[in-house]
Design brief:
The complex is a heterodimer of chains A (143) and B (165).
Chain A: H1 2-26, E1 29-32, E2 37-42, H2 50-63, H3 65-74, E3 77-80, E4 100-103, E5 108-111, H4 122-140
Parallel strand pairs in A: 2-3, 3-5
Antiparallel strand pairs in A: 1-2, 4-5
Chain B: H1 2-38, E1 39-42, E2 47-51, H2 60-73, H3 75-84, E3 87-89, E4 103-106, E5 113-117, H4 123-141, H5 148-162, E6 163-164
Parallel strand pairs in B: 2-3, 3-5
Antiparallel strand pairs in B: 1-2, 4-5
Classes of the chains: A alpha/beta (143), B alpha/beta (165).
């Protein structure tokens, strides 16, 4: 009886620690336990909130389950970042004005931050996530 | 009574062994995690890279992910990296004479080392800096002039190769 109580206490402690760690790391991620989906969200600026990107993912889930599954399987990180194609920066640099891109060799999607030149709606971001998660799927299917 | 004593001795022996096994397993897991964080080992492609610890950005994972990008998206650049570089130093404070933040550096005094001081958020840029600095390492190895134009061009090339719109 004493032995069972001891193991139950240990199990409870480990469970509490696991849940706490999960919620702490979840602050910087999108998590959907029901779909076993967890995607890290990196923010670059204060103009776009982590919630806006998470909203775009939820919209994708609501509108297109198939694409959402592809997104969960083939994307592990969404970074708010400019898609640079040279060492130059700024709006005159190649790729800078694109809404987003997929980084081959990874499971990372970049989404352009909102700035004075461009603001993206949740629907637009959801479409970009759909497009680039398919690009990731197409890349990794080769291996 | 003697049987009971033998049984208790055996039980104590098993518990001691069990404790040793637990400690060994924890130690092995810890050791493997540390090695995974500080080294890139690819036996099949004969690639062994040491990644120094970056305390300021804690971005060793970024370095590893950038190496992975090169491995899968540009095998030729990955091969060049593996053949010409032994150590990647992600320190934000490279040696004197080397520019730092969000860039990279190559110093002829340490020809097998490249300094890549990029932040955690810029994965594709990190891969580009690695290719740029590897380009300098190749120039040094081939006793060619130190040309930034050539290596900026290489960095731009890899960015175009790995970025899909």
């Amino acid at each position: 009886m004493m032995g069972i109580k001891k193991y139950l206490k240990i199990f409870l402690k480990i469970s509490i620690i696991t849940v706490v760690i999960y919620f702490i790391t979840g602050v910087f991620s999108y998590s959907d336990i029901t779909s076993f989906c967890r995607v890290k969200i990196d923010m670059m600026s204060t103009r776009t909130s982590r919630n806006e990107i998470a909203d775009a993912i939820r919209l994708l889930k609501k509108n297109d389950q198939e694409s959402y599954k592809i997104f969960c399987r083939h994307v592990n990180r969404v970074s708010e970042n400019y898609c640079r194609l040279s060492h130059k920066s700024g709006s005159s640099a190649k790729g800078w004005n694109e809404g987003g891109c997929y980084i081959r060799g990874s499971k990372t999607i970049y989404l352009r931050p909102n700035d004075r030149d461009a603001k993206f709606t949740t629907q637009q971001r959801a479409e970009l996530l759909k497009k680039y998660s398919r690009a990731s799927k197409n890349f990794w299917e080769r291996f | 009574m003697e049987n009971l004593k033998s049984f208790l001795d055996l039980l104590y022996y098993i518990m001691t062994i069990g404790r040793l096994v637990k400690i060994s397993v924890i130690f092995i897991i810890f050791f493997v995690l540390i090695c995974n964080y500080l080294f890139h080992v690819d036996v099949k492609n004969k690639c062994f890279l040491r990644i120094k610890l970056s305390l300021l950005e804690m971005n060793n994972t970024s370095m590893k992910n950038a190496i992975k990008i090169l491995k899968y998206a540009s095998p030729e650049d990955y091969r060049d990296l593996c053949e010409n570089v032994r150590v990647i130093d992600p320190s934000i404070i490279p040696p004197v004479g080397c520019p730092g933040f969000e860039g990279g550096c190559f110093h002829p005094k340490t020809p097998k080392v490249i300094y890549v001081s990029t932040s955690q958020r810029t994965l594709s840029w990190t891969a580009s800096v690695m290719v740029h600095e590897t380009c300098h390492a190749i120039q040094y190895r081939e006793s060619r002039p130190f040309s930034e134009e050539e290596c900026y061009s290489e960095g731009g090339r890899i960015l175009e190769k790995i970025t899909e719109f």
